[in-house]
Amino acid sequence: MFQLLLISSPWFLPEEHHVLTQLFEAGLTSLHLRKPGASRAEVEAYLRAVPVEFHGRIMLHQHHELARDYALQGLHLPAATRGKWRGRPMPGQHLSTSFHSLAEVERHRRRYHHVFLSPIFNSISKVGYSAAFQAAELQAALHRWAIRPTFRPQVIALGGIDASTLGQARQLGFAGAAVLGPSGSTRIR
């Protein structure tokens, strides 16, 4: 089943918890909580503001130690953390990361439940961050992996995902697509 994942804005936004709760109630299955400049206390306050019944839908990008105290969906390892991290997710939690080549997915695939592969389309939020893959190359790799009964991870399209590219990502064979929350130019804390 093709899934849509949301990556939070890197900044704290007004009404963010209210909107997030509405999205979860409407069926959002996964939020990647990414607040790179936030302190541990700020991330924990964010988690406490989300109704507990939705904690199991949150992937945490930093302050991974909080996963011991909250029943989260799992942990995401940013590239800078990936090689240094020696921990393990709590039983039942997922582990994810991001890659920028098909070779990386193939080489590191067994460790992760799902991975973001980017940029699939020209980025909406990063100027000059252009699509890095040919459609035929993606489709062939995704099809090859899909017919392997034990292939892991799920490969999620990232980069340039919007209403006009979502269907293309699905047709290419991705397990899902990730969209970024509002990035805006104004930081709100």
From TrEMBL:
Domain of life: Bacteria
GO biological process, one term: thiamine biosynthetic process
Xref: CDD domains: TMP_TenI
Residue span(s) of domain Thiamine phosphate synthase/TenI: 15-180
A Pfam cross-reference name: TMP-TENI
Name of the protein: Thiamine phosphate synthase
